[in-house]
User: Which sequence fits this backbone?
């Protein structure tokens, strides 16, 4: 592992995307616990992409327009669904209390993991990024790739947790301002929509 790998990983992970938006939304909806659960879910969603990269399936995805297209449009559909659901869900950002609907851990983790699973850019990232730091001729190339991937996942967990806890820290201030809640809801919905449209334009 090199400094260049760590710095590049930090830049890629810290750049706001669908996972960051989901974690922020979860933090504002359910506080620290939901933020941590969302961060874990987004990290878990990296595992299938890692497995594909190690087994060589990601190369097939990168070279097959059909496979890439199917995964891409599944991801687009899910992001658009998130946009609509966020826009329409008036319960998404509510204060804790007897009447506040609790989102289950399984549902939050599942939604976060599915979002990353349906993101073909993650697989492309593993195809284009990791090989630059692993010599394929090394006898321990696979363990080396697994080690770097573990670092990537750890950085993802730490950065997303930081985003989530930061949002949870100001949650109570946000909840006291209905106009801010409405603005945030529309912003999250618009961001999911924009990400979906950007993903639709992505090419293998």
Assistant:
């Amino acid at each position: 592992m090199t400094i260049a790998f760590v710095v590049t990983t930090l830049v890629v992970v810290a750049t706001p995307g669908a996972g960051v938006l989901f974690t922020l939304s979860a933090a504002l909806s359910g506080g620290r616990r939901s933020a941590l659960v969302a961060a874990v879910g987004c990290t878990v969603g990296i595992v299938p992409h890692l497995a594909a990269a190690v087994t060589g399936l990601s190369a097939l995805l990168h070279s097959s327009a059909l496979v890439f297209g199917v995964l891409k449009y599944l991801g687009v559909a899910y992001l658009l669904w998130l946009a609509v659901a966020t826009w329409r869900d008036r319960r998404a950002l509510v204060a804790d209390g007897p009447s506040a609907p609790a989102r289950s851990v399984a549902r939050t983790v599942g939604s976060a993991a599915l979002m990353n699973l349906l993101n073909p850019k993650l697989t492309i990232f593993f195809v284009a990024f990791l090989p630059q730091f692993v010599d394929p001729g090394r006898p321990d190339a696979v363990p080396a790739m697994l080690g770097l991937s573990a670092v990537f996942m750890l950085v993802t967990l730490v950065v997303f947790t930081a985003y989530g806890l930061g949002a949870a820290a100001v949650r109570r201030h946000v909840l006291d301002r209905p106009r801010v809640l409405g603005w945030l809801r529309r912003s999250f919905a618009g961001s999911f929509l924009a990400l979906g449209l950007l993903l639709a334009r992505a090419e293998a």
Remarks:
- DSSP finds eleven helices and no strands in the chain.
- The first helix runs from residue 3 to 14.
- Residues 92-102 have pLDDT under 50 and may be disordered.
